[in-house]
Amino acid sequence: MMPPSFITGVMPYQDTYSDAEMHPRIVVLVEAEGIKLPAVVDTGAPWSIISPKRAADAGVDVTAGIRASHPLNVRGIRYQGWICRLSIRLVAEEGQDLYLEPPVFIPEAAEWLLPNFIGLTGFLSNMRWAVDPGENLFYFGPL
Q1: Which end of the chain is more exposed for a tag (fewer CB within 10 A), N or C?
Q2: Spatial separation of the C-alpha atoms in residues 105 and 32, rounded to whole Å
Q3: Which domain, by its residues, includes 130?
Q4: Which of 59, 24, 31 is nearest to 116 (CA)?
């Protein structure tokens, strides 16, 4: 079957974020500020979220962003944090990479045990995308 005409790139995805996880997810490998990291595609997430450690590893200065005016509720826990624009690249296994600069929430948390997330606002809403669950492929292209 041919992919949709809007597709410029395709990458495989994993079904789980970690070996300890039992719930199926769409987990893609992205490059944020030059650092490769796994991220769960989450259409219910209002923002993309990157762990504070990964953001620090990428050299992100959160104070250059905007302090979130309200805590973000993630899985029933409210987190204070920063909203920063990050350079994120979807690395195509076939076709062309896609570059975005979405707003990303970076929580203020001493310990972040949750995954990184690709959220709807500013990320998934700024691109075209499709999933082939039979082949574990994530298709993408610009708007």
Answers
A1: N
A2: 13
A3: 15-142
A4: 31
